[in-house]
Design a protein that fits this description.
262 residues; alpha+beta; Fructose-1,6-Bisphosphatase, Chain A, domain 1; D-Maltodextrin-Binding Protein, domain 2; 2 domains; seven-stranded mixed β-sheet; five-stranded mixed β-sheet; 14 strands; 37% helix; 25% strand; binds D-MYO-inositol-1-phosphate
């Protein structure tokens, strides 16, 4: 399943990279909005998901697919959870920070996954119980010793009221950690925790396709991970991933920052 996830993610990443090159060269890309005026979907997101669905139908005809753009539901067996472009706003602005994310889940639990970056070409993969890799190199989290030396990634909802509360949490956190990053693609933030490029990551309100592959990659690199529905105190829809040395103090700092109200 890891090989299948990687194969279809690479094929979709190739499509997205070529579309981006055409866009940079001046081709117009059709853009629509979803939950809010800032929550965008492009024709390239849709084409990428169509390709992934087509390839999965050929390679794994009995499995279900849940995708960001076309929806779907988890079945009894294997469900492929697909984000055809994670970081769509970055894609639209010409930034290279976006990825195709594909995970295989059984009973709602990720068992294999791949995150592929169309521009930089990085390929992140993991298999449950067997580790995580970046282009064949085994991944391990960082090991910060103090909260004030911890680099934390986060992201913000497309809903304005909620993002104001998220910003308030970040304001509380800023004086207690080394710094905060908001690169704009949740799957890559989770991969960054796996590689030690971030010490931790927290975000509320992610969808399953945002975290399905990346959270497995972080966990298999040794991160302490909690997913939406797993840590009520952090919030019912919190995604949290942290290097083990800093997970408990960071969680405590988040709780004292009023995170539960987010
Ligand atoms: C978004 C990105 C972003 C995160 C948002 C996600 P999209 O996904 O992962 O970093 O902060 O919560 O919705 O819309 O680019 O697929």
């Amino acid at each position: 399943m890891r090989d299948t996830a990687l194969q279809v993610a690479e094929e979709a990443a190739d499509l997205v990279r070529r579309a981006r090159e055409a866009m940079v060269a001046g081709d117009a890309v059709q853009v629509d909005t979803k939950s809010t005026d800032t929550d965008v979907v492009t024709a390239v997101d849709r084409a990428s998901e169509r390709l992934i669905r087509q390839r999965l139908a050929e390679l794994r005809p009995d499995d279900q697919v849940l995708g960001e753009e076309e929806g779907g539901a988890a079945g009894d067996g294997v469900t492929w959870v697909v984000d055809p472009i994670d970081g769509t706003v970055n894609f639209l602005y010409g930034s290279p920070c976006f990825a195709v994310s594909v995970a295989a889940q059984v009973g709602g639990v990720s068992v294999a996954g791949a995150v592929v970056e169309p521009v930089d070409g990085r390929r992140w993969t993991a298999v449950r119980g067997q580790g995580a890799w970046l282009d064949g190199r085994r991944l391990h989290t960082s090991a910060p010793e103090r909260l004030d030396l911890t680099l934390v990634g986060t992201g913000f909802s497309y809903d304005r009221a909620r993002r104001a509360r998220q910003a308030a949490m970040v304001a509380e956190l800023m004086s207690r950690v080394r710094d905060v990053r908001r690169p704009g693609a949740a799957s890559l933030d989770l991969c960054a925790v796996a590689a030690g490029w971030l010490d931790a990551y927290v975000e509320h309100g992610l969808h399953r396709w945002d975290w399905a592959a990346g959270a497995l990659i972080a966990a298999e690199a040794g991160a302490v991970v909690s997913l939406p529905g797993e840590d009520e105190e952090l919030g019912p829809d919190a995604t949290f991933a942290a290097a083990p040395t800093i997970a408990a103090p960071l969680r405590a700092a988040l709780l004292s920052s009023g995170i539960a109200k987010i």
